[in-house]
Amino acid sequence: MPPLSRSRRARRVLLSAAAAGAAGALVVLGPPQAGAVAPPGVPVAVVDYDSHTAAEYAGRWANPYGPLDGVVPQVAPSGAVTLSDVPFKPGTDFSVFDHLKYIGVSTQTFAVPKVGTVTFEVDIAASTPGAEAGHVVNGVYGPPGSWSLADPQARPYTATVLEGQQAGVVLNMIDFCTGQLFDWFVAGNSAFPLIERLPTTVTGNTSNPSCPGATEVGLDRAYTQIIKNIPVSPGEPHHVAITFSRSPGQATVSYALDGKVVAAVTNVGIPLDRQGKGVAWSGTYPSLGAGEKLADQITSFSIGHGLFSLLDAFPFQYGCTPPGALPGAGSCAPESAAYSVSISPEERAFGQGATGVFSGFRVTTTGR
């Protein structure tokens, strides 16, 4: 589709120029502005990360969490990768495993300049049949598996979830050593940027030999928050980009949709609801701790892409054991037990699914 290709190239020029301008300014406090020009001598590196054969894809992307829903990527000679899972398989009522229908993580990592920016971008065409605005998910408060106990004393849980929470086609910017993530969730009719920090129980960062000096991330530092929900035109590709910007002592992330910056967060590592009244967010999900600034701790990112759902409540059964650990249900650590929500497989996978086509993976690094 030549018009789409021209549009994508134009957006990349703007994003690369914006990133270069932010790095050249030496202080990165907000989202990059389109039209900025890189000062002479500021390094700019561009990596195209598409795959053109199944073998090339297998070399570029790893599946650290297994095959999950059995999704098999379809790789076109053009570089487009199609992931399809329609409908989703029955959900898993333990930890974050229900979220992951498919995730591929880049086998290459991308260093973050001490002063400068890193931008991940890709075109996503998303179809999410069965997901619709206003859908309500039901469950109970309790440890994993407690939805099946029919306990009359169990406190009911209900939540109205966004289309992208029901089924999303996702781009991730991931630092496994700090657990910091930035995500785009794209659904058929809407999209949202998400910011989160995963706990050590999910990332295993403190036992990872590639993460020397990594510190334990508990509920005082972990968070998952949707910034805003944005309508998109159905049935056509959308260009999404995530730019991480850093200057001494400060880090900012900005999210662009179809060439326009639509959200930006400073003080990366501090939950949105702990940053004061001037920081906008959707209200999903409140944090349980103050977090910490991560500008000086993040050294590199990996790319992630996949198919996800996000139907349950933060902190996603943190500190809980699997349903089979005790007769009828698992158990949860005291500090998180009150927040654990159990949702049946039928409520987690109610007929919705997702198909995503990814094309034009690109990483642009500006600065030193």
Outline the structure in words.
With 368 residues, the chain is mainly β. The protein has a single domain (43-367), classed as Jelly Rolls, CATH 2.60.120. It contains 6 helices and 19 strands. The protein has helices spanning 2-25, 54-60, 163-166, 200-203, 334-337, 345-348, and strands at residues 44-48, 61-62, 74-75, 81-85, 100-111, 116-127, 135-141, 156-161, 168-175, 180-186, 190-197, 223-226, 230-231, 238-247, 250-257, 260-266, 300-308, 341-342, 354-367. Strands 1, 3, 4, 6, 14, 15, 16 and 19 form an 8-stranded antiparallel β-sheet that branches. Strands 2, 5, 9, 10, 11, 12, 13 and 17 form an 8-stranded antiparallel β-sheet that branches. A hairpin with a 2-residue loop joins β14 (238-247) and β15 (250-257). The longest helix has 24 residues, at 2-25. 48% of the residues are buried.
Instruction: Outline the biggest β-sheet.
Output: 8 strands, antiparallel
What string, H for helix and E for strand, traces the elements in order? HEHEEEEEEEHEEEHEEEEEEHEHE
Instruction: Let me know the average pLDDT.
Output: 90
Number of domains: 1
The low-pLDDT segments are: 1-37
CATH topology: Jelly Rolls
Binned, the helix content reads 10-25%
Strand residue content:
35-45%
C-alpha end-to-end distance: 36 Å
The CATH architecture assignment turns out to be Sandwich
CATH C-level class is Mainly Beta
Structural class: mainly beta
Broad shape = globular
Secondary structure tally: strands:
19
Structural Rg: 20 Å
State the helix count.
Answer: 6
InterPro entries: DUF6081, TAT_signal
Pfam family, one: DUF6081
Signal peptide: 1-25
Keywords: Signal
